[in-house]
Amino acid sequence: DIHKQKNPVRLRSTPINCSLMLRISRMNHHRLLLCLLHFFIFIPTHVFSFVAFPVLVQQQQQQHGTTVLFSKREQQVYIDSTLTPERVKNLFGWVSRLFAGDPMYNNLMYGIAAVFGTNLPPDAEILQMAQVANSRLPSSEEALMGEPISSIERYESSLGAMGAGQWLGQFQTRPHALLDVRNLTSVDDWKQSLPRGCKRTLKKANAQNFTVTTRIIRGGKPAPHSSLAHFRCVVEHEVRLIALDENDTEGFLQALSMAVGRYIETTRMAGEIQEYRNADGAVIAFAHEVRKGRAIRGQWFYSSDEASKSYVWFHS
């Protein structure tokens, strides 16, 4: 319910920096999108538009009970921060046009307003854009929509940190963990060396009613997780991680921008994914692993509270 929001957000337009636009207009559109998404994530008081629209600056409005987005004409747009399957699909449609390099869809905040806005007139331009993007989606939620990125580009995209907790500074995580395998001949040997509580957790993970499929991310082909089904996992995972509750609108907006950024990054990287499906065959989670030499790095995404309690992390 939009009237229950405690932290209203007001966005107003400001003049765009033309010299900045001249420099970034020559960048690859995916690198540009990631650059601006990271800027928005790390400086939450500023919301950048992407190339084609004026810069938006976020401010707090001292009006209780509403969440509004202001366009450059000061038109109020009320946001309902409730995730539904249809809204996630519409947001994916907008993001898919970004993947296709369509400059009309370079503004993520306009996309969020179109998908989660509740008071836009039916003939609003951004609503019509969202409808067009949605109409271009394939009928199958598992159709791959990613670019056929080369192996070299995937390698370069895999050099950074994995996992939001580390590069957001939200958690005091260790940069790495070392496992001495010199005296181990099998995984069972390692398991026997664990404390009783860890053994019990692994036993629960192996007893879950899910199926696991390994899918390799290959160069020159779309990522095997560049689909709506996997996008749902990323969006729901980030909203559950960042937004405090249904009244945390600012956290909700940050979670959406984070989800788009992490989805683009994970589908540009190398490695492989472990895809988890429930008894109905629906994708409930996936683990993304990147290996080089004897080092293994990973990140995980869960589609729902039920999936997050299915011990996927321990299983993978």
Biggest sheet, open or closed, and with what strands and sense? 4 strands, antiparallel
Strand residue content:
15-25%
Taking all Cα atoms into account, the compactness measure Rg is: 21 Å
Q: How many helix segments?
A: 13
Characterization of the model:
With 316 residues, the chain is an alpha+beta fold. Helices cover 41% and strands 16% of the residues. Strands 6-7-8-9 form a four-stranded antiparallel β-sheet. Strands 1-3-2 form a three-stranded antiparallel β-sheet, with no helix packed on it. Helix 3 packs across helix 5 (125-135), helix 3 (85-99) packs across helix 10 (228-242) and helix 4 (108-116) crosses helix 5. It is globular, with a radius of gyration of 21 Å. The protein starts with 8 loop residues before the first strand and ends with a helix. Mean pLDDT is 77; it is low at 1-27 and 38-66.
